[in-house]
Amino acid sequence: MRSRNPVFSRRGFSRDNGYAGFNAAPQAGGPAVGTQGNPYAQPTGNPYAQNPYAQQDLYGAPPQAPAAAGRMTMDDVVARTAITLGVLVVTAALAWALLPVDDAHLGRSYGIGIGAALIAMVLGFVQSFKRKASPGLILAYAAFEGVFLGVVSSVVDNRIASGAAMQAVIGTMAVFAGVLVAYKAGWIRVNRRFYGFVMAAALGFVLLMAVNMLFAVFGGGDGLGFRSGGLGIFFGVVGIILGACFLALDFKQVEDGVAYGAPREESWLAAFGLTLTLVWIYMEFLRILAILNRD
Length: 295
Hints:
The protein is mainly α. The chain has helices spanning 20-24, 74-98, 106-128, 135-159, 164-184, 192-219, 229-259, 267-294.
């Protein structure tokens, strides 16, 4: 499997440098998936056993792999994602309860939250560049990310906008459900063009926000103003739209991983990617709510 930047790039279930969702899937009129098209197919001496589920799809979609021991299933992805998000939610709740954000403790609590965010970022990058999933690393990322989210959510909810955290959670769940329905209904077509557009837009977005942060650090104030006022709301909405696109890419990669018979341990990578995306969307919602109430 190829590893990519966890901030604005998604993983593909493939052993080579390709992205299974766009490079390994069979095309209409092309050869059925075998050891060449399926990155997880195992070559054998029997020409009829090269691919036991090579049924050509007229629409070019990946074939459905039969259930096999040690292969990833949708249940595996759901279970690992639930565990990862569960760890994140629990540590966020503990941080909210144990790290007060009143005037006397705000500096210390915020410092702990920022430290946890930096640790989570390092762990996320380490897992992103590992060839195999490390459940311990992924759960550690979720734990530290939860501490950061708990502190930030408490600050916004208690000092800026009461109820903002719950509103951001509801908004994130609504985006997740909406994208899932749209993807399953075929309203969103995840292809090479979609992938390229999302990656280009995400790269531009991250670079722009990084420049704004540098101006804010060295120039003071709100930097270039991309995270405050009307511009802040606009870029927050753009961030949510990008997060929704990331979800569509995540769904496609999970679907391809199950179809191609990816190893079961890669369900942890699917959980990792989905968690990253949901955190991204939640933070954008929280930022928009903070700007609206501050203004």
